[in-house]
Each structure stands twice: as structure tokens, then as C-alpha cells.
Specification:
This protein is α+β, with helices and mostly antiparallel strands and 130 residues long. The protein has four helices and four strands. A four-stranded mixed sheet has the order 3-2-1-4. The radius of gyration is 15 Å and the shape is globular.
Length: 130
């Protein structure tokens, strides 16, 4: 565990545990969990009382035509940021279908900048309240 990437991953896991100690999703107010990898971004609405995922969205389900349009960038957003914004809109729509309008945001140990913030902005724009 001496290499840099494993230390970074361990530090993120510690931050994740600290946040999860305080953030808990319920049926009325589920947890919006965000995960970002080097290539993709994922979001889930989770009810921690029952341990069930109510809705999920990711950029892997976007159509190729949509993805190439977003990869060029949208307005002032860069490629990955515009994709994360679109995933935020998708999770908000999926949440509406599941009857969810208010959520608790779980950044999952990631800094609230870049793609994580863009996903949150997209979800807020489509009607989710944090």
C-alpha cells in the first residue's frame, strides 16, 4: 500500500465513512449517492432503511448520438461536465417517477467540484431538492 493511488483510494474511503455516519436516506428523503470513475459517472437514489435502490442513472445508458453531442461540450461546460449534468437530469427524472422530490446528497468522499457539482446542478435544475 505504498503507491500513491492506493493511498488516495484509502483516504477517499475514510472520507466516505465519515460522511455516511451523518447522512442517511429514508423513504421520504432518500440518499443521492454519486460515484465517478475516470471515464463514467453514476448516481443512485437509495433508501437506507430497507437497503433498496429506488432509481439509478449513469452515462453508460446514454445513447451514442447523445453522448457524442455532449462530449463536444455544452455552453461553458466541458465534455465530462456536460455528461455529468445530463446524468443529474436523468436521476431527477427517475426520482420523479419513483415519487421522490427531496433527497440527501452523498458525495461519496469526492470533492464537491467538477463532475460531482455538475451532477448536483443538473438534478436541482430538474426539480430535486437537497
Amino acid at each position: 500500500m505504498n503507491d500513491r493511488s492506493s493511498k488516495k483510494k484509502l483516504a477517499r474511503m475514510r472520507r466516505q465513512r465519515r460522511v455516511r455516519a451523518r447522512v442517511r436516506g429514508t423513504a421520504e428523503r432518500p440518499r443521492l449517492s454519486v460515484f465517478r470513475s475516470a471515464k463514467h459517472v453514476y448516481a443512485q437514489l437509495i433508501n437506507d432503511d430497507t437497503g433498496k435502490t429506488l432509481a439509478s442513472a449513469s452515462d453508460t445508458v446514454l445513447e451514442k448520438k447523445e453522448l457524442t453531442a455532449l462530449a463536444k461540450g455544452e455552453g461553458e461546460r466541458k465534455a465530462k461536465m456536460s455528461v455529468a449534468f445530463a446524468v443529474g437530469k436523468m436521476i431527477a427524472d427517475a426520482g420523479k417517477k419513483a415519487g421522490v422530490s427531496v433527497v440527501v446528497f452523498d458525495r461519496n468522499g469526492f470533492a464537491y467540484t467538477g463532475r460531482v457539482a455538475a451532477l448536483a446542478d443538473g438534478a436541482r435544475e430538474n426539480g430535486l431538492k437537497f
